[in-house]
Amino acid sequence: MTLRIDISGLPSERLRFAASPLAELTAMLHVLAEPGHHPQFAAWAAEVRAGLRPELAERLREAEFLWRSSQADFLLPARPRPTLAEELDDVDRIDDETYVTAALVTTCGGNRVRLAAPSPLTDATARERALDLAQARGARQEAFAERLLADPAAVRARVRHTLEQCAEAFFDVAWTGAAVRLATDLRLKNDLLRRQGIGAALASVSGAVTLAPDGDCIIVDKLQDKATAAHGTGVTFIPSVFGSPHLVVVHAPGWQPVVQYPVAEPSPSEPVSLETVTLRLEALAHPVRLRLLRTLARGPHTTGELAHTWELSLPEVSRHLAVLRRAGLLTARRHGRYVRHTLNLPDLTALGTDLLAAVLR
User: Fold this and answer.
1) How confident is the model at residue 269 (pLDDT cuts 50, 70, 90)?
2) What are the strands, taking DSSP E only, across the chain?
3) Is 176 exposed, middle or buried (0-12, 13-18, 19+ CB in 10 A)?
């Protein structure tokens, strides 16, 4: 499963790397709403929550659907600005229908295309459907959707004011520290883009982001089969300190593609592809292969030893071992006349973490 961004005919200068205060604030708000996704920021999140004024804490709970399970597209600017105020000004220039549709997609969990036309602001059926979806997700979502549809201007102003209060409460201080790491990352990415081209720049973003062999498409390894195009407008890549481990992509029709990626840690580990995780899960789904792994966990064994231990035929054991080797869970080394199979314990141990990373990505 992949998300594909068509960049055929796109000049390299249309692929831009830039920091966004609004996108980083959105990442911080997601950490506060879903701390379980971000154990490395647990102490920071606890400190911020403890210091929030009750009024601001309530405002964040009221609007958290804009950044909790997914981020509203208008919170990830296609053209980042130097300051949060400038980016919020750009959000204010978005028309009500575009803003409301993006907000309701996040709030209601609805399909982006179906919510986009007709607009729930002008079409009674679309409005009723949006409210039904919001109600199914809980009282807060329903109340937010009702207020947004009844008075978009008032809700938009309230959301902006909430974000401005966040700047004073915690964002400005956190941004000062994060901006240094973001600037360092951007220098690397833009230098790679200038000197070695798009493929090298994408490879430095994440092992989950690659350039198709024909150079006409950016492929993002995510749990969705989607496609969008960057013709004319380009693609914006926004680094994030607080966004790890998520790889967020704006891909809805009518929006310029934006990719928010986590800045690499000082000693980054290469992300395991979804294909590899799937292959390993499938390899472990067979009871015979689990029995073989149980024996191999105790030490290296030959095919004959495994066949004897479990009263299986040599061809049957060989077939199962081949599946485990293709999944990267075994290694085989020849010792004289015999080939001994060894369990790849680190990768087997990391499977749960790799699966979680692939899901959260």
Assistant:
1) low
2) 2-6, 15-17, 209-211, 217-221, 226-229, 235-240, 248-250, 258-262, 301-302, 330-335, 338-343
3) exposed
